[in-house]
Structure formats: structure tokens, C-alpha cells
Amino acid sequence: MQKINQYLFVTMQTILVAGAGKSSIYLIEYLLENASKNKWKIIVADGDKEAITPKIKGHSRAEAAVIDITKNVERESLVQRSDIVLSLMPPHLHILLAKDCLKYKKNLITSSYISDEMRAMDSAVKEAGLMFMCEMGLDPGIDHMTASKIIHSIHKVAGRITSFKSYCGGLVAPVSDTNPWHYKFSWNPRNVITAGAAGASYLLNGKQVDLPYNKIFENNKKIKIPGLNALAYYPNRDSMKYPEIYNVSDIKTFLRATLRYPAFCKGWDAIVKLGLTTDDDAIDTAKLTYVSWLKAKTACKPKTDIRKHVATILGIAVDDTVMNLLESIGIFGDVLLPGDTMSSADILLSLLQNKWQMMPEDKDMVVMLHEIEYEHKGRMITLSSSMVLTGEGGEHTAMAKTVGMPIAILAELVLSKKLKPPVGVLLPVMQTVYRPLLRELEYKGIAFRDEVV
């Protein structure tokens, strides 16, 4: 009988990366660097070819897919070809990919908060034996993993956690800090404009605190992180759902917050109170200037000095530092607006994109801090865990690294079968996920410094 040689065929795996925006560079580069070794094909899909091309750089294992993500036929054909889908699309578009992934039995990883529509898919996703890992970026993402690691370690020694506060911010690095707001855009500018619009809720000394939008940036408290000037924070979204997720349901204080410099919070509080972030008004900007828009939004009478009028609304002096902040962004300028119908949020964004643009030589900075108080053997202990990461400049921002790398590493662990994917619509709070992820992130320079008092 003729002997037949046995050959081992390695099947190529295909990864779909949906979205080639600001946060995608490290994710795409990591996948391409490991593509040959792991026999991967990387499809990068976006509506803008110019966003894809410089990121894949003609790599032999990369494919550019210029598509309209809302077109079912274009999107589904890519999902069907893929072994796993990684979505960096705007939050409201994740659900389109999620439905495709359920239909074609593909695992999904996203960087955004779990929407109600995504959460409603949990039973179906579990039944299909799939992993839809959401909130897998920086914040949310790395914050969940590091917080869970700390909380689980405290529970192991029978510690009782009484207070948990988590802060995170994407900031301009001190070396590139050149404006009085101490801020430049290192991620989606639109999200900065609308941040806090839904208000915020958190737990303080056993009582729920609910803040409306116009109160979010008031009385921002300062916080000190080793090696940095004082920062300020404002409460971030709804913190009330996380005590149960983190298994600290009996905790007295629980807060998730966003970090900025104090000047930013003061200035942004003024902008919110002036109604300049409104997203549902429609303004005909033809022959309209920034200052005439400001006058219309604040009901300033024709012969009234706009600076005095604004100062009166805000209850401050005309020479207050907040007025200087407003002046610095050109809001009192007699400069024509883009000739189109826009919302106030769009107009403000058109102004700030120029004023707060990250230049190629600029560096950003990501800062995260957890503060946990717990009781152990009758003694109260305070633990702080902090991470400060400075970007390299250009597209290689600290924000892109901390958003993209967790997604890339999880995808690699799943595809290489080093991690058995948990099933359901999930957050990365389980040890089987965060342990290997945090270890790999530390190798990539995303490391935390712990202090106990």
C-alpha cells in the first residue's frame, strides 16, 4: 500500500477592524506586526480611504475596505469573512456589527459603553456561545480591569471596601501645554463637546447624588497625582450601575470621574451655562459670526457690550480669569462661521478644532487613578493606584495606545486559544481576561504604580 504523506495545513485567520480613526493606529500596527507569525489577514474598514492607507502602509497581510458601514451588504460580507470583529466605530454603530456577528457567529470586541440595545442581546449571544466584549478600551476598559484586580485582591484577604473612586483623563502633556485651558484634542473632539450632557450620578457616603448637565462642572475639586500639577475632576456618567458589576454592592462611596486641569473645568462650566454646547438647535450660519452667534444664544441686546453681558450671566467680573479663557478661544471674534446650517455644538466645535488642535510635534498624556479605602482587621487602609503615560507625538498618542492595545491583545489571546472567550455581552471584569491582558499591557509600558497608606 502506498504511503500517503501527512501535511499540516494552518488555516489563515481573518480579523476585521472596523474604524480607522484617531484611536486605531496602535491596534492596527500591533495586528500587522504579528500577522505573519500568526497567519492573520487584517481587513481595515472605514468610510475614508485616506484614513486607512497610511495605517496599513501596503502591508502584504492587510486589506483596505472602503465601505459605508450602514450598508448591510457591504458590512455583512466583511463580517462573514472574518473570524473576529474589532469595532472602533462611533458608539451608535456598534450595534450594526453586533447583529451581523450574532448572525454569522463571530466574536466581537468594542471600546464603547454597553448600550441598552447591545445589553438586550445578552441571552442570544450566550445561546450562540459568543463573546461580545464591550468597554475594552481605556475608560471604559483598562479602568475596569485594574479596578477589578484591586477589588478582588482586597476581597481575598477579607477586606471590606468602603470607598472607591476612579479618575481618568486624556490631557495634553506638560511639554506641549501651550494654551490657558491646558487642553488639546487627543481623541474624538465631538465627544469632548458633548461630554456630561446626560448628567451624572454617583454614590457619596451612602447617598445617591444626581447632577444635571449645568451642574457637572461646578465646584470641581482638585486632586494630586505624583509628578503632575494639580488636576481637577468632574463626575462621569452613571456610576451607580458599577458597584454591582464590581461586586461591592454594600459600598458607601462610589465615583467614576474625568480628569482635566482646573482651568478647563472653570471655563467649560461657563460654556455650558451659556448654552453653547446645545446639539438640538438648528442655526443658519450664513453671514453669522462667532460673536453674533454668542449674542443670539445669550439674548444680548444690540447696544449692550457682549463681554459685560456674558460676565453678568456668569456672575463674574469682566476681568475674571474665566473671561480670559473665553477670549482665548475667539468666541468674541467677528469671524464668519462656515456657511451651513449647524447646531451650537457644531459651531463651538468648528472654533475649538483650530484652537485646540494637536500639532504633529505635540504629545498627549493619559492619566488614571484609583483611590480605594477599605477596612482590614480593624484598620482603615487607603490604596492608590496610578498610571501616567505620555504619547510619542503625531498619530502615536497615549490615547490611541491605551484604547487600541487592550482590544488587540484580547483578540490575539482569543485567536491563539490562550484565552477561552467568556460568553455573553460583557465587560472585562473577570480574572481570566484581566490577568493576561494587564500583564501584556505592562510589557507595552502601560503600568500602574501602587501606594498604600
Short recap of the structure:
This protein is of the alpha/beta class. It contains 17 helices and 18 strands.
Strand order, largest beta sheet: 3-2-1-4-5-6-17
Number of contiguous helices = 17
How many beta-strand segments?
A: 18
CATH class of the domain at 13-134: Alpha Beta
Structural class: alpha/beta
CATH fold-level label of the domain at 13-134: Rossmann fold
| CATH architecture label name of the domain at 13-134 | 3-Layer(aba) Sandwich
Envelope shape: globular
- Provide mean pLDDT, rounded: 93
CATH superfamily of the domain at 13-134: NAD(P)-binding Rossmann-like Domain
Largest sheet: 7 strands, parallel
Beta-strand proportion: 15-25%
What does this structure look like?
- This protein is an alpha/beta fold.
- Among the domains are: 13-134, NAD(P)-binding Rossmann-like Domain (Rossmann fold, 3-Layer(aba) Sandwich); 282-342, no CATH class.
- Helices cover 35% and strands 23% of the residues.
- It contains 17 helices and 18 strands.
- The chain has helices at 25-33, 35-38, 49-56, 72-81, 94-104, 116-119, 122-127, 142-156, 189-194, 242-245, 262-273, 290-297, 306-314, 321-328, 344-355, 398-415, 431-443; strands spanning 13-18, 40-46, 62-66, 84-87, 107-110, 131-133, 160-172, 200-204, 207-211, 222-223, 231-235, 253-260, 283-284, 341-342, 364-376, 379-390, 424-426, 449-452.
- A seven-stranded parallel sheet has the order 3-2-1-4-5-6-17, with helices on both faces.
- The radius of gyration is 24 Å and the shape is globular.
